[in-house]
């Protein structure tokens, strides 16, 4: 049962990171930066988490005989998820003509234009709903595992 808790909690942590990145994307949508750089939308790439035993530097130092790690006995056993990396999108900025704005380019091809980040709020909201539902699914899995543990303890107590 401990594996279920690890899997669900890793999923919740990964979705929290994704929701934080979406919030950052939405907060920076349509806002120019004073230093002239353009914000790039970010997203988290998730991957299967490595079992603890596979990332230890020297597993021979510990007595692992009594421990079972997710994926150790059966490679098909899931071991949760982790944030593999955070990537920035590579879309070109959107230029808006506003020559009186202090952030507008003073010279060059985009003279009088403000470089705005290419962040689609609708796409971000859809991603936010998706991440929220994935988070809720992990919470439901935790609650189900907890209920199974409680019922197993009741059965043990009655026998």
Structure keywords:
159 residues; alpha+beta; two-stranded antiparallel ribbon; 43% helix; rod-shaped
The overall average pLDDT, rounded, is 83
Task: Give the oligomeric state.
Answer: single chain
Number of strands: 4
Name the helix and strand elements from N-terminus to C-terminus, one letter apiece: HEHEEEH
Tell me the helix content: 40-55%
Shape type: rod-shaped
Kindly, what is the distance between the CA atoms of the first and last residues, rounded to a whole number of angstroms?
20 Å
Total helices: the number is 3
Global Rg: 24 Å
Overall tally of domains: 1
Taking the sheet with the most strands, its summary is:
2 strands, antiparallel
